[in-house]
Known about the structure:
The structure is a homotetramer of 205-residue chains. With 205 residues, chain A is mainly alpha-helical. Helix content of chain A is 77%, strand content 0%. Chain A has helices at residues 13-37, 50-83, 90-105, 107-116, 120-146, 157-180, 182-188, 190-203. Chains in contact: A-B, A-D, B-C, C-D.
Amino acid sequence: LESAPIDEAAETPTERDFDYNRTVALSDGVFAIALTLLILNVAHPGGGSFGDRVSDVAPALGAYALSFAVIGMLWMRHHALWRDMRRIDGRLVTLNLVYLGLIAFIPYPTGLLSDQGDVSFSVVVYAATLSLTAFVAAGTRVYCSRRGLLKPGSISASEAASRPFIVAGVFAISIPIAFVSPSAAEWTWLLLLVFGVRRRRLTGR
Amino acid sequence: LESAPIDEAAETPTERDFDYNRTVALSDGVFAIALTLLILNVAHPGGGSFGDRVSDVAPALGAYALSFAVIGMLWMRHHALWRDMRRIDGRLVTLNLVYLGLIAFIPYPTGLLSDQGDVSFSVVVYAATLSLTAFVAAGTRVYCSRRGLLKPGSISASEAASRPFIVAGVFAISIPIAFVSPSAAEWTWLLLLVFGVRRRRLTGR
Amino acid sequence: LESAPIDEAAETPTERDFDYNRTVALSDGVFAIALTLLILNVAHPGGGSFGDRVSDVAPALGAYALSFAVIGMLWMRHHALWRDMRRIDGRLVTLNLVYLGLIAFIPYPTGLLSDQGDVSFSVVVYAATLSLTAFVAAGTRVYCSRRGLLKPGSISASEAASRPFIVAGVFAISIPIAFVSPSAAEWTWLLLLVFGVRRRRLTGR
Amino acid sequence: LESAPIDEAAETPTERDFDYNRTVALSDGVFAIALTLLILNVAHPGGGSFGDRVSDVAPALGAYALSFAVIGMLWMRHHALWRDMRRIDGRLVTLNLVYLGLIAFIPYPTGLLSDQGDVSFSVVVYAATLSLTAFVAAGTRVYCSRRGLLKPGSISASEAASRPFIVAGVFAISIPIAFVSPSAAEWTWLLLLVFGVRRRRLTGR
């Protein structure tokens, strides 16, 4: 509703540190809380035998593990981007807030997958959320690179942004698939594992 | 219930840093948690077609996006105020706690808007909360300015406080309107966008 | 289940800082989350007129404001104690965890007051929680003072601990009263305001 | 899904501090939130006399106290490990995220114990979670020690990891017992107290 309050022109190094430190602290807080709220989506099992209870909670446990891994990985990438940051500006802070709004949103589609994982709506919302999140992450890196906010010698924007663009693409492709078959869409996501493993083999990282 | 424990007379610079750092840390914590709790207000959709589910959750998604943007913007302004702070006193810490009590309250009217957005009560509580929050923000800046807590060269109190006073005013005006028509009151809030855009054009920020 | 892992004998100044900083960070985190979770106790109103809805949520709003003020005040006092800390030991870290367990518990009796504020059980649990919290706070200060953990020139233990002991006493006295009349017990709590105001007049703080 | 982004080869001391500080900050955040979410598992009592209400909530209060003590103790041990850390690598950050995923999971079996503490499923899930958590903690210490990530003079891996391995073992043993008798399994956990006390007597810590 208003312009960003962080005006780089007036900044001393100390003020830059303050902006930087509080932005990182808020981000770490949102990541930590989003990670920890995921557990609220795992409902208690209904009655029945031990096996009944296990199969009752299994989808929710799977969704918990998936989203915890996803948010954890996104935190590591956020961490890697901000480690390379030389200075920040108001627009980056706004972009980062949009990104945090998507991170804080992830517990919702996780809950949908836990409760109603067999309907298209749940799988579409999950895939759309992660596609958008990866897209904003890639866009943020491109923005930082274009505005010269990164330290010299940082990984190039095109190289660094290619991975989140691939993630965004795979999740986007799974959306139309989910309208036909929710579980086929979930299998599509495994493509990411394949890309990740191949890349690691090729680059040695 | 008791006087503020922070006694500026006895302070060394290190103690001032400690007071300052913990107050900022608590504030960032409350902002991060309030942002992240918003998602708990978005209920799972009932059954029906894909379209039914979308229209089921649309108001809650809108309320989530609105409140995330509002709290994010308030965090940026809190950030800008505390960046300018030269020293703090007990009364400021108390004022800041009252302010955090309002920030932590925002998830509640957000939930009302999500569930019962068409009744006056929900819209009135939302508008009253944000009006009060903006009013306390403006009052805090005036207080800091009068007590000489800000760094020399900081933006003047009257200039800095004018924006939150406008926000407080617009939300206050929407309260009587909400008794007649809740949705008309929500349209009133768009005035803020107009003010924001115009201001940016005039001042170049 | 095991002895405290922080062994002061082996500590360098840097390690002391690390222990200290993480303990303060965990404490600020628990305070911030306890403050922010309070809002989950405020239920949405049932139907009816605007006035019906207001009286529906009024007790919960009162309980929210009361507990936010109480936790905020306890945070200020925790802050004041830790500002005076010269070094910490394992037993203090354990005592602090017990204290944080009580702080994190406060949302529960707050929810009882919101929902079932007219039964003895709710008022007794609230009063017992705050009495115990104040008692542990007083005990922690006495412990720090006896073990020489505070900076020289800090406020004396007997003086500093007298206020939390009074708070513990007033809440303890209200417990038997709550068995006869829950609302009479709540009025007893106002004694604390009287003590606070009188003290401030006498001491000028 | 991708390799860890933290590449130790390229690190300057400042970057190492950044990685370290953010990892500790995220960990403290997850610990603080897991501790504070435990209270959401304590349900309000149904009606009846004061005594009825007490026995209604007693199991949930016991589970709250148990899990708060457990998470608090795990935080102290995490703290002790990270105090000894000289540098970190990507695999340690991943291991730490797995560990945090287990810490953030603890509120779920705590809720099971509160609500359905008399069925095998609840006790098995609780014991399995804590066994796995202790196992990952022990494995993390062994990993750090083998890769030379700890400061010279740190406690040896075999000595430091023996305690979490004992904890993992006791909880693992209680799992088959819980299939026969849930309460017998809970009594098994008291063995840990015995080990703790004996150890402290032998080693003086």
